[in-house]
UniProtKB/TrEMBL annotation:
GO molecular function: catalytic activity
InterPro entries named among the record's database cross-references: AB_hydrolase, AB_hydrolase_1, AB_hydrolase_fold
Protein name: Pimeloyl-ACP methyl ester carboxylesterase
Domain AB hydrolase-1 residues, every copy: 22-258
One Pfam family from the record: Abhydrolase_1
Top-level taxon: Bacteria
Signal peptide: none
Amino acid sequence: MPYFETADGTRLSYEDYGAGAPIVFVSSWALSSDMWEYQVPFFAERGYRCVLFDRRGHGRSDRPSTGYDTDTRADDLAALIEHLDLREVTLVGHSAGGGEVARYLARHGEDRVARVAFVAAVLPFLKLTDDNPGGVPEALSEATVARFQKDRPKWFADRAQGFFATHLGNDVSPALIDLTMRQCLEASPWATTAVWREMFSADHRDALRAMTVPTLIVHGAADQSARVELTGRRTAELMPNAVYKEYPTAGHGLYVTHRDQLNADILELIKG
């Protein structure tokens, strides 16, 4: 398993498959690069280079006590891209990974990036403030933190069916759901809390308005983790030149339940 080192000496695990134009997959909060098992073979077999990494505190990467702020996590992504000297990159970010992609572009520019796909991304800004009256009160976010700090396995288990929107007929086996929950629990409890709080409070509105690279926004109408009216639709409003696709029966785990449709849409973005 290869590693690269960030500016503060943290060692992060990454994987590199295939050859051709690079696609960098940025994982969800609490999940690792293993979540992309239905995307990597699809793109590698079609002549693309697929690069994945585990953010700090997740998967096989180091578990430092610091560096979970959005700026540092975006800089970690930059360190990976620079370590491999990737250019003309397609960035694909799911959930919190979408926020890291947006902050990467705000801090490091678009020189190495050809296009972006935001998949069920927690954008543009969740927190209730005077200039974000439709946001979520911080007290509600902290109540959620308290619940998963009390019993983290139960918190994830209680949301497993909703994560995949199985109530809408999405066929996900109990074994696959169990695997996803185990992957979530592999993240350090410290990182789980720290990244959640950062994800909730990060304001990406200016970064999204400033983006000029071709962008795809994909969101599930039944997403219970990042409600579409707070995230996907608002992101699309800030980016009128982006392609916005809303999947009527998809939840947050659309990278599994709607893998064929998602892969085809990302491929269309790349070829377009």
